[in-house]
Amino acid sequence: MKILVTGGCGFIGSNFIRYILKKYPSYKIINLDKLTYAGNLENLKDIEKNRNYKFIKGDICNKELVGKIANNVDYIINFAAETHVDRSILEAGSFIKTDVYGTHILLEAAKKYHHKKYIQISTDEVYGSIDKGSFTEESRLKPNSPYSASKTSADLLCRSYFVTYGLPVMITRSSNNYGPYQYPEKVIPLFITNAIENKPLPLYGDGKNVRDWLYVLDNCSGIDTVLHKGIAGEIYNIGGSNEIANIGLTKTILKILNKPTSLIKPVADRLGHDRRYSLKCNKLMKLGWKPKRKFEETLRETVEWYIDNKNWWKKLKDIDFNKYYKKQYKLSNE
Ligand code: NAD
Ligand code: TDX
After folding, report:
1. Nearest ligand by distance to the CA of 248
2. Ligand 2 atom index nearest CA of 177
3. Atom of ligand 2 at shortest distance to CA of 186?
4. What would you report as the CA-atom Rg of the chain, rounded to the nearest whole angstrom?
5. Residue 46 belongs to what domain range?
6. How confident is the model over 288-301, as pLDDT tens digits?
7. Ligand that comes closest to the CA of residue 95
8. Residue 204 Cα, ligand 2 centroid: separation in angstroms?
9. How far does residue 238's CA lie from ligand 1's centre (Å)?
């Protein structure tokens, strides 16, 4: 199997490449990544010499480059995206370009080279917020941020290529991931690393927004299931069944690190902040998938990973992050 993975130097993509190369030693992976602020070659340092792995620096919006690479693979899995909701509130253009137009370029390549499968890595955020109950794959799409609107647009493009051209497209919609190599702008690594440094943890609004947390390797096994057993034209939710309010999550992180709750700093709410996400995942479970790892155990392991890998995150926070974060913080306090 020859797979083009896009965005493989980011958080989930790098975990996925490592997972696949370990589980299927004969599979070949080409990783196309633009290396934006979120892409990091260090995330795959341990496998960069693997004979079945090749990295190409480039943009999924580059039609010529994508065409050349796509000609040599039979599967595409698209992880590449701008992914941070707060950044999309500050500047939406790059989200529309990469998440929508970039997806279009990849779909065109999959159509041209008659790929066996095209898998679009999407998100639960396309459904919007839900107060009670859980979203199924049939729920209406009601995105609330420029990020989730871009991801929704990409999902709709994928659907249209299945209906119009019969392209074997599959979409996964996962809930919030956590684990090693997550860029320290997302809430779990941000709060862990701030707490390690005794810096305040900026908790948005009343802290009662709920997210369903999925360990990244359980997402990888879900995508693996879709790669091998998924049906063309279908959508698969991938959730962790670990719903927790942000305030509870924050206190748990502080407890694991043995830090005081006085580090919690309530700040102004995120604009358009989704209250709760929740997914029904029976459809993927029918294909044999279920999340294997327990939340408390993997959250603790994740905290330990950030303690042990200070060199990895410290420089990320020092460079780009400070500039971005100051801007973001100003927004939160206005
Ligand atoms: P990330 O921000 O950590 O990584 C994104 C990667 O894509 C980076 O390596 C970046 O360099 C690359 N990239 C960005 N623009 C590109 C372009 N134009 N061309 C090529 N590469 C480009 O993201 P992540 O958290 O690993 O998310 C991966 C995918 O999973 C995204 O599509 C995201 O929407 C989706 N998702 C993420 C979560 C989550 O909790 N992190 C949950 C559900 C869905
Ligand atoms: O500083 C913060 N304070 C805070 O209270 C940050 C960064 C976040 N939060 C809250 C906002 C959310 O309710 O924590 C929750 C999680 O926030 P993020 O980590 O930014 O994730 P979220 O907005 O839920 O989106 C994530 O999950 C779905 C990913 O970033 C998306 O790429 C994915 O599609």
Report:
1. 2
2. 27
3. 19
4. 19
5. 2-177+215-238
6. 999 999 999 999 99
7. 1
8. 10
9. 16
What residues contact residue 133 under an 8 Å CB cut-off, 6+ apart?
278
- Taking only the tens of pLDDT, the chain with its 334 residues reads 999 999 999 999 999 999 999 999 999 999 999 999 999 999 999 999 999 999 999 999 999 999 999 999 999 999 999 999 999 999 999 999 999 999 999 999 999 999 999 999 999 999 999 999 999 999 999 999 999 999 999 999 999 999 999 999 999 999 999 999 999 999 999 999 999 999 999 999 999 999 999 999 999 999 999 999 999 999 999 999 999 999 999 999 999 999 999 999 999 999 999 999 999 999 999 999 999 999 999 999 999 999 999 999 999 998 766 666 666 655 554 4
Strands 243-245 and 210-215: antiparallel
7 lines ligand 1 (CB under 6 A): yes
Q: Which two tokens stand for residue 215?
A: 């360990």
Residues 92 and 190 in one domain: no
Report the separation in Å between the CA atom of 163 and the middle of ligand 2, taken as the mean of its atom positions.
Answer: 33
What residue type is assigned to position 280 of the chain?
K
- Residue 60 CA to ligand 1 center (angstroms) comes to 12
Given the CA of residue 148, which atom of ligand 2 is nearest to it?
Answer: 34
Q: Are residues 161 and 80 in the same domain?
A: yes
Provide DSSP, 176-202. EEESTT--TTSHHHHHHHHHHTT--EE
Same domain, 234 and 299: no
Q: Whose CA is nearest to atom 25 of ligand 1?
A: 11
The answer to whether the CB of 85 is under 6 A from ligand 2 is yes
Quick count: other Cβ atoms within 10 Å of Cβ 280?
Answer: 17
Please give the structure tokens belonging to residue 77.
């899995």
What ligand has the least distance to the C-alpha of 106?
A: 1
Give the distance (Å) from ligand 2 centre to CA of residue 187: 5
Residues 76 and 195 in one domain: no
Q: Return the H-helix or E-strand segment holding 173.
A: strand 169-174
Q: Please tell me the pTM assigned to this model.
A: 0.97
The pLDDT tens digits for 254-287 are: 999 999 999 999 999 999 999 999 999 999 999 9
Give me the active site residues, please. 124-125, 147
Q: How far apart are CA 135 and CA 152, in angstroms?
A: 15
Are 16 and 35 contained in the same domain?
yes
Residue 83 Cβ inside 6 Å of ligand 2? The answer reads yes
